[in-house]
Amino acid sequence: MAEKVNNFPPLPKFIPLKPCFYQDFEADIPPQHLSMTKRLYYLWMLNSITLAVNLVGCLAWLIGGGGATNFGLAFLWLILFTPCSYVCWFRPIYKAFKTDSSFSFMAFFFTFTAQLVISIIQAVGIPGWGVCGWIATISYFGTNIGSAVVMLIPTIMFTVVAVFSFIALSMLEVTVVTTERAKHFYNPQDIPVTLYSDSDEWEMWKHRSDPVLHIDLRRWADLMLVAPLDANTLGKVASGICDNLLTCVIRAWDRSKPLLFCPAMNTVMWEHPLTAQQVDQLKAFGYVEIPCVDKKLVCGDQGLGAMAEVETIVDKVKEVLSQHSGVQQS
Ligand SMILES: Cc1cc2nc3c(=O)[nH]c(=O)nc-3n(C[C@H](O)[C@H](O)[C@H](O)COP(=O)(O)O)c2cc1C
Description:
Blueprint: H1 25-28, H2 31-63, H3 68-99, H4 102-124, H5 134-140, H6 145-170, E1 175-177, E2 194-196, H7 198-204, H8 213-220, E3 224-229, H9 231-239, H10 245-251, E4 259-263, H11 267-271, H12 273-284, E5 288-289, E6 293-296, E7 302-306, H13 310-329
Parallel strand pairs: 1-2, 3-4, 4-5
Antiparallel strand pairs: 6-7
Protein name: Secretory carrier-associated membrane protein
Membrane topology: Multi-pass membrane protein
InterPro entries: Flavin_trans-like, SCAMP
């Protein structure tokens, strides 16, 4: 196998330094993590560009009569934070997604939280700290409007970096797996997140080294929600059948992670003795039932069998997630 040659950062030939890292998103990162990894990479780039723009802002500050300290510090932050943020938080998340390493995830969350705190301090902008944040910029409007306008640009950029870092840290990633029959009930274009179906499983796997989608999905997810769980899939899951992407993910599910299911079917199907047996079987596997409710069903019948209200489902997911993260931390 050809040895991978380091390609990052891409340095021009006349610089006597060699790239220190190998970076190839498509080759290294499993498809379900690709967009998240790229978004974090773009955030790292935005952070670096902001530090460069901050240097220009501090130059304008200097020209407008401010001290040289800010300019000197701005230069230091640029050459220090650009490689440090790459090594300290982008590389860990790249490695975490590449190798599914919980240590790298932990390292990322630790250093990325520090990055968020630094971005907030930069956006605030204490004069003398080498950053054009809000306090430094607004207070300079009274001294030199031209310099203050230039300083406003990095200030806005620091704020954007802080907001995006906060969103990245608090974001839940959702992926939807659909059955072929379920496709009759919605428009795929209305699904705002990644949507996988049976064809993806088979299109992704051509050779031995290719990703196996149902295994990658079960590794990636911290929680699985099956909503609605119809009578057909309920029967399959209870007896271990796995003949599509959804039932394969469920069959391969690591039972130390939560799996929640929301039964939904016609009242007579619900009242069939098989249903209670199969629901009990799923509960015996450790899966959590979000019970169906009594209401007028789409078919016109009135009675038990309607899927729980979305609000009930969201509340239950939040409750189970917080319990589970508590168990993992302890
Ligand atoms: C309009 C319509 C609505 C349906 N609603 C339900 C339902 O709410 N619950 C259910 O168990 N089956 C329902 N079915 C039957 C399922 O679609 C059928 O069992 C299908 O094979 C399920 O496939 P899947 O489990 O692979 O998604 C419905 C069928 C149709 C045509």
